Amino acid sequence: MDDTETRDSGTRSWWQRQLPPSPLARSLSVQSILFAVGEGTFITGSAVFFTQIVGLSAAQVGIGLTVAGITSFFFAVPAGKLADRVGTKRIWAVSAALTAGLYLVWPFIHGFAAYLVMMVALEVVSQAGWSGRGAYTIDIFTREERVQSQAFMRAALNIGFTVGALIGGLALATNSDDVVRAVPILTGAILLGNAYWITRLPEPPAKAPAHADDEVIKPAALKNRAFLALMTGDGVLGTNQVLLNIVIPLWLVEETDAPRVLLAWLFGTNTVMAVLLQVAAARGVDSVARSLRASYISAGFFVLSCAIVLVTHDTVGWLTIALVWLGHVTVTGAELYQSAGHWGFMSELTDADQRAEYQGAAHIGGTLGSVWAPALFTWLAMEHGSLGWITIAVIVVVPTLTMGPSARAAERYLARHGSAT
């Protein structure tokens, strides 16, 4: 009897480790799945939708994405300030509802001008929502729960995007314009459910009443230049996504003898690892020091990936396949640990009274650290081979080495000017 109870207890404990650690974390993970299923359904067939339904050229699609990205860069901090003032959960819920409504309008959009207006509107609304969400998910958890819960939510996002991709793929498989035109309506309906789910989440803890002089004394998030420098370095580390989604696939196709079908296995491996290993990578990241450690591990995986992939130019057959796959696995390791470090920094180094504004500042720093990477990394790898891969590794290592001093300076700045986290 006692032995059975012990085994049952052990079984329950194992299952608990596979699930988000609290009802709130589970509820936010469900929200992440809802959001990702909706977005993933549309994103999968978006190229077909934009070209065949909206009537755009590939160049026009790219211009719209670029303009939307620039808008997001300049709107990030104002959106964060709005979320801090209005309420992080409220702005998140309103943004989610507006986003759903905008998707319902997509079937009626035609031509470049209307597409451009829609992309900018979506980006502005989404940026406000992401600032609110980021601040909410820090405020709602205790310091000990924050990073681990974020890891479960990230794993849930990957599950949701996978399901969304399957739905979008089925829609494309019909080869019907009417079905493709209906995809954003399905996305809008799912995202309306997401918005309702957000409204059912608990309110974040009430903040202490502000004194009359606080508005004058407390500096803007962008004044915290050490934090901005840290987020820029973190943005450079985040260029693992460029290797993952652009450079390694291009390298495989143009510079190796590996079969193109391997690309499906690469992305499948990344998805499985992101779902199963993100929580493990984030375990114990509950301080600035441990966040830095996660960032350094991420950089190590990044460099190892570059070292592995660069030799595949001269390998053949199964060795090439194995090495390219291993290069993708190691860059996925860079992704997992960079995410964990980022969440730790956002938990420990953002002002409790300006949480969403700091989300906007982090977005600006991350953009500065990564916006140039697709063009530069692709050029270095494809035009300069081994030397290019070595240069990419150096480009990543140097900013990573500055993250320690930046983090310590941001910590001191927050001690002088900020509120308790």
UniProtKB/TrEMBL annotation:
Major site of localization recorded for this protein: membrane
Keywords, in A-Z order: Cell membrane, Membrane, Transmembrane, Transmembrane helix, Transport
Domain Major facilitator superfamily (MFS) profile intervals: 24-408
InterPro entries, per database record: MFS, MFS_dom, MFS_trans_sf, MFS_Transporters
Intracellular or extracellular location(s): Cell membrane
Ranges that cross the membrane: 33-55, 61-79, 91-106, 151-173, 179-198, 227-251, 263-282, 294-312, 318-337, 358-381, 387-407
Lipid bilayer topology: Multi-pass membrane protein
Protein name: MFS transporter
